[in-house]
């Protein structure tokens, strides 16, 4: 294998960058799943909406930072509409019905995106201050990717504080552990669900805007990211922050180093790991419910 | 108010009746099955081909003689086969036009050949479709993968480039294109010092591959990517700061006018080879680009020209007196004319198009990106590669 320490440092950063993107998506999905017992397959489609709204906002307002605010805000509003119109009614409908409804939502959202924005992929320019490479950990690395890593770490730290140190965090953890008992203790579980759902949508929108300058916005980006995200959730364990962190690190690094070391097997390795985890620990590596 | 509404309704139904009447008259003409992806990764390409095809029929003034049945391949080989069967057996079309994906073309080949329905291929470039697996019912007016890439080998070697790293998606077209380039480049004295194939439609982050390519320290990187992957690749290549040291070359699809604007400044300086660029300075190209812009509101890409030429060869074949499946199949290879992409003809040995290949650089012109032609390789013709018609 070619390259010295610089080469491997750069590849570690590549792995970290991909892990952070996967984390931003999977944390929303896993907490919604853990708390609401709700399988939201449309989560990837919301990520795509975030990217497209970001592209439009950036061209209308002329600023990437405006897009970074508009994307999550718009996706949260769409999420609220979906919650009120569909998801609230489907709460008790059982996982198979939920999967079917949210799977159908993917097709609806993808076609709406194709009608509004067209089939041609759209690019989003990086903000000028983050374009080009910077010196980081002794290697020259794209500044924007450093920003992606930093954003992921910041969200990780923020959510960790929120879940472990605040009252609402304690309520969420109680709801994930046993929602009936939490309701008996006077926690308004429905309202809690709603808040968590909104935060999950906002993070999906944020991930979409952040991903757009690197990957560009395409109508198939939502379904393409959904499978790795579900793998992260299954490997990490449903409903847990630590599980999402560990799972996204594992998947991000396996994809990156798989591509470097054994390109022919890169796309298979994640599935092999998924199979191994399902056999050895079907509940995931760090499940929320012990 | 009510009366006016009634009048509108009457006018509407009269218009509908007239349209229905026209449709009945038209169905006496040549029935065309347009088999293109309308969803999936190549939907935008399919639309460009559709637009170009319709424009050629309209220009000929014979659009009414060609009733069109459209079907969506979804870029999936089994779906493509099912839709081809439907077009032939149920709609009883006289000719099928389209097919974007090499995989779909490979899958429908035997059915087309055995049912003896002429197929005008408007994109799919797999070499064997006009090589070992050629058919007298399959005529290709787009390109073959080898045809587009072969000229790049000697051209890059002549620029003094000795060591190249190649990258492409891991599927048929990726391997075809890189193989063709590698063969001519090494024959011209160059060396491919490293090569990676990235998982097709599963790779979004090219960072690991770009880091590897950079570490190998080549004189240039040569790649094939198209569509969304091309946009991501070019932008990521730029953001890693590789551009300053290692120039990027590739199949011209990499910076197609269809999506070069989504790539933005990152695409400036990328050099590719292709059978059409919209800045060609010929009367045919200028007229085509102007009327396509007027009709569809954007600059036509190579895909639009492929659709246009598919329409042109069909019109030429019908004008020469062909009317049913057999006579259309026999007449298609005999057409030759000057296309927006330059002089074209169909090779009687393989049924593949013979055409010029242009080497061009994407350059920034103000805020927009445009194509500057650096060289022309005239009348590029594929060897028969085992084809016997």
What does this entry look like structurally?
The complex is a heterodimer of chains A (290) and B (389). With 290 residues, chain A is mainly alpha-helical. Helices cover 76% and strands 3% of the residues of chain A. Chain A has helices at 5-36, 43-61, 64-90, 95-117, 143-165, 167-177, 179-184, 189-215, 221-236, 241-261, 266-280, and strands at 133-136, 139-142. The longest helix of chain A has 32 residues, at 5-36. The N and C termini of chain A lie far apart (42 Å). The mean pLDDT of chain A is 90. Chain B has 389 residues and is α/β, with parallel strands linked by helices. Chain B has helices at 2-26, 43-59, 77-90, 102-115, 145-149, 152-158, 172-187, 207-215, 227-239, 260-263, 283-296, 302-319, 325-331; strands at 32-36, 68-72, 95-98, 119-121, 138-140, 163-169, 191-198, 220-223, 248-251, 271-274, 336-339, 342-346, 353-365, 368-380. In chain B, the strands form two sheets. In chain B, strands 6, 7, 8, 9, 10, 11, 12, 13 and 14 form a nine-stranded mixed β-sheet that branches. A five-stranded parallel β-sheet of chain B has the order 2-1-3-4-5, with helices on both faces. Mean pLDDT of chain B is 90; it is low at 17-27. The A-B interface holds A 2-3, 7, 10-11, 14-15, 17-18, 114, 118-123, 125-126, 131-133, 140-142, 144-145, 213-216, 218-221, 224-225, 255-257, 259-260, 263-264, 266-267 and B 39-41, 43-44, 47, 170, 194, 196-199, 201-205, 207-209, 211-212, 215-216, 227-228, 231-232, 235-236, 239-241, 258-259, 261-264.
């Amino acid at each position: 294998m070619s390259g010295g320490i610089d080469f491997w440092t750069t590849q570690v950063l590549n792995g970290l960058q991909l892990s952070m993107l996967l984390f931003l998506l999977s944390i929303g999905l896993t907490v919604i799943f853990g708390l609401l017992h709700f399988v939201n397959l449309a989560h990837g489609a919301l990520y795509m909406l975030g990217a497209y709204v970001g592209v439009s906002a950036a061209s209308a307002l002329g600023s990437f930072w405006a897009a970074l605010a508009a994307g999550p805000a718009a996706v949260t509003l769409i999420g609220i509409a979906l919650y009120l119109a569909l998801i609230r009614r489907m709460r008790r409908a059982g996982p198979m019905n939920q999967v079917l409804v949210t799977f159908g939502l993917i097709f609806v959202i993808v076609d709406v995106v194709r009608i509004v924005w067209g089939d041609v992929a759209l690019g989003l320019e990086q903000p000028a201050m983050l374009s080009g490479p910077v010196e980081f950990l002794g290697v020259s690395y794209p500044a924007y990717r450093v920003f992606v890593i930093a954003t992921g770490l910041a969200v990780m730290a923020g959510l960790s504080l929120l879940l472990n140190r605040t009252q609402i965090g304690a309520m969420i953890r109680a709801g994930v552990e046993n929602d009936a008992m939490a309701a008996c203790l006077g926690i308004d579980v429905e309202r809690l669900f709603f808040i968590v759902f909104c935060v999950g949508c906002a993070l999906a929108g944020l991930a979409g805007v952040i991903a757009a300058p690197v990957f560009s916005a395409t109508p198939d980006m939502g379904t393409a990211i959904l499978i790795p995200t579900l793998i992260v959730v299954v490997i990490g364990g449903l409903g847990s922050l630590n599980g999402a962190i560990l799972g996204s690190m594992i998947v991000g690094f396996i994809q990156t180093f798989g591509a470097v070391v054994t390109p022919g097997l890169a796309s298979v390795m994640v599935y092999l790991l998924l199979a191994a985890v399902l056999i050895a620990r079907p509940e995931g590596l760090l499940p929320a419910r012990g | 108010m009510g009366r006016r509404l009634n009048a509108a309704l009457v006018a509407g139904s009269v218009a509908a009746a007239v349209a229905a009447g026209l449709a009945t008259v038209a169905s006496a003409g040549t029935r065309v099955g347009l088999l293109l992806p309308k969803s999936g990764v190549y939907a935008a390409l399919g639309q460009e081909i559709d637009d170009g095809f319709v424009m050629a029929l309209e220009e000929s003034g014979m659009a009414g003689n060609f009733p069109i049945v459209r079907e969506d391949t979804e870029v999936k080989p089994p779906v493509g086969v099912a839709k081809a069967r439907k077009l032939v057996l149920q709609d009883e079309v006289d000719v099928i036009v389209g097919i974007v994906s090499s995989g779909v073309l490979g899958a429908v080949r035997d059915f087309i050949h055995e049912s003896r329905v002429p197929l005008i291929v408007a994109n799919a470039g797999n070499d064997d479709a006009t090589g070992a697996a050629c058919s007298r019912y399959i005529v290709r007016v787009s390109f073959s993968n080898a045809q587009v890439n072969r000229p790049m080998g000697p051209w890059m070697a002549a620029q003094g480039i000795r060591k190249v790293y190649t990258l492409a998606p891991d599927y048929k077209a990726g391997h075809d294109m890189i193989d063709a380039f590698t063969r001519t480049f090494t024959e011209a004295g160059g060396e491919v010092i490293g090569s990676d194939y990235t998982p097709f439609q599963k790779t979004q982050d090219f960072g690991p591959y770009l880091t590897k390519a950079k570490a190998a320290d080549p004189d240039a990187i040569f790649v094939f990517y198209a569509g969304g992957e091309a946009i991501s690749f070019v932008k990521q290549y730029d953001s890693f700061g590789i551009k300053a040291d290692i120039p990027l070359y590739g199949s011209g699809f990499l910076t197609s006018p269809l999506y070069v604007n989504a790539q933005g400044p990152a695409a400036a300086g990328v050099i590719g080879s292709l059978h059409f660029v919209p800045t060609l300075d010929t009367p045919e190209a200028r007229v085509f680009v102007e009327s396509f812009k007027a009709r569809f509101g954007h600059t036509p890409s190579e895909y639009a020209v492929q659709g246009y030429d598919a329409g042109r060869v069909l019109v030429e074949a019908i004008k020469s007196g062909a009317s049913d499946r057999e006579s259309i199949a026999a007449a298609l290879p005999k057409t030759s004319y000057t296309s927006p992409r330059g002089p074209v003809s169909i090779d009687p040995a393989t049924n593949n198009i013979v055409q010029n290949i242009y080497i061009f650089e994407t350059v920034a012109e103000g805020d927009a990106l445009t194509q500057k032609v650096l060289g022309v390789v005239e009348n590029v013709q594929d060897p028969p590669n085992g084809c016997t018609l």
